[in-house]
Amino acid sequence: LKISIRKKEGVYASATRKLDRIFTHPIMGYLAFAAIMLTIFQGVFTLAEYPMGWIENGFGQLATFIGNNLDDGFFRRIITGGILPGLSGVLVFLPQIAILFFFISVLEDSGYMVRASFITDKIMRRIGLNGRSVIPLIGGFACAIPSIMATRSIKNKGERLATMFVIPLMSCSARLPVYVLLVSLAVPKGTHFGPIGMQSFIMTLAYFAGILLAIVISIFIKIYRKDKAHSEFVMELPPYQLPRMQTVWTNVLHKSKEFVTEAGKIIMIISLVLWFLSSYGPGNSMEMAKTETIRTLGKVEGMSKTNLEAEIGAAQLKASYAGIMGQWLEPAIKPLGYDWKTGIALVSSFAAREVFVGTMSTLFSNTGSNEIEGIRSKMKAAVNPETGKPLYGVPYALSLIMFYAFALQCMSTLAVMKRETGSWRLPIIQFIGFGIIAWLAAFAVYRAALFFS
Fold first, then answer.
1. What is the pTM for the complete model shown?
2. pLDDT tens digits, one per residue of 168-203
């Protein structure tokens, strides 16, 4: 590690020396860094909530408008079910990307970023990463997409690829709805072990499981990496200064535009493919599923039109190509305690992890005002016809939490990985490798939970 300090006499040099007594201190430096990272993480997580909601609501209203004013047919279905969700899936990440790169640009232009890299480099280097890896890794808890793009500041190719490889193991905000649903299945609300709330404890374990696996994989990459040479980390510590906002905004706009024009193309294509798989089935299977559902449930006393339409949607989803894929997956996921409905949800959640909740809600015809609460009660009531025990009990929930903590169930992340590496090789290795690890971990947790339950 080589450090070059730019000396400049006057008030800036004096202020820099005073600030560096805190920001590069062996103890206070880490505390200050943790506080700054917590602020950034909280900003990316909370400030983006409203604009992301506006984008989703805007596309939802646009889809409703088109659905009400365009004749039913292929073009209306592909626009409302394929193109608009695809565009929404691209643009909904823009607030997080813009906010994260805004903070990073401010830290870089103020002179703090090199100090953060300096104090964390020793720790990161022990596991085969780089001092500049820590910002993208922490940002991964909000969203892996902008965090993978943020690794561009890492000059060493091997360390950059290693950082990009493990970022998806940081539990992003998209996993939160899945965790909330599954934790509520596993642990009743208000359950405590002493002063510790068990729901919060299990959710925390899910986050730490991803961190631990990321450390283990980083060490293995360091051991087996062909390039054994350590990167030369040469830094110039400039005096602190007020960020130049023109530079900051230019950087934010450039990164945001690059994401939409490059990664957005791949995301749109995959969205359309997933829409086709869930909207069509072989032969007239979709129509037959609708007819059979109407014949069976159409005259059931107390069956409302809304519930009937939800049942029809669930039956057609099962008969679609995506549904067939879910049923085809069932033998592979049955050892984990999952059924074909979970298989469909796993396939559909490849578009975005939080889609799992919506898919299970559709399959269970949830019509309650609180989606998670409504689907939770229906899943709790489901019974395994073979054993008579709860179908979605504690072993199921804990197993699936572990699966989502490790599996790369996000097409947008794969698209950005392909864009950043210029090849599908690393994304495919991630998808398959993390999938195998997720399956093994979920299987172990499921069997252990069955043994102790």
1. 0.70
2. 998 887 787 788 788 888 877 767 777 767 777 887
